[in-house]
User: Fold this.
Amino acid sequence: MTRTASNSSHALDGTYRTGEYDKNRSKLQEPRNKLTLEEEAQIRQKVREFYIKSQPEQPNTPPEVLFNLRGKAAGQWRLRNGHEQLRFNPEAFCQDWDSHFPDTVAHEVAHSLVYRTSGLRRVRPHGPEWRAWMETFGCQPRVTHNTPLKGRRVRTYTYRCACQTHALSARRHYLIQRRRYRYECRECGQRLQQEK
Assistant:
């Protein structure tokens, strides 16, 4: 499957394919999954600009910016013990910089500003308050992205019944092993046993 990069600085020939060769029989570049220091600095600078734009006379202090998000989400705003964090997925920015910069950055800053202006009262995550901030920043108020990300690897455990093999999640495996839960097959009704 071919991934076309919209910013040619992120790929030698603009395509990402694993284990394949271009027409000159030279191996194609593997996709990057780490941002350069300059790219991280650009994202941090854009975060600061959005906070300044939100309150020019006395700008809000930006929260901690991290580049440790994995999975299918491009960005995340989170509140832990009263401290805000903006987390970004480096893979998303590496694959399609133009789609995520500055829109994904604005998306997460808007969540932070909704929290700062509305507090913890019940507001819809992508409701009118969030949309208003996105429009203030001059970005499309899109909720999802189209960049195909790998997602997190989930460990599974193999269990069997009389008719088939089942792949159980780590959580269900824990419940069976430690809490003595019992799971039965929906087809044959037999209790699932871990495969040795």
Remarks:
- The mean pLDDT is 84.
- The first strand starts at residue 3 and ends at 4.
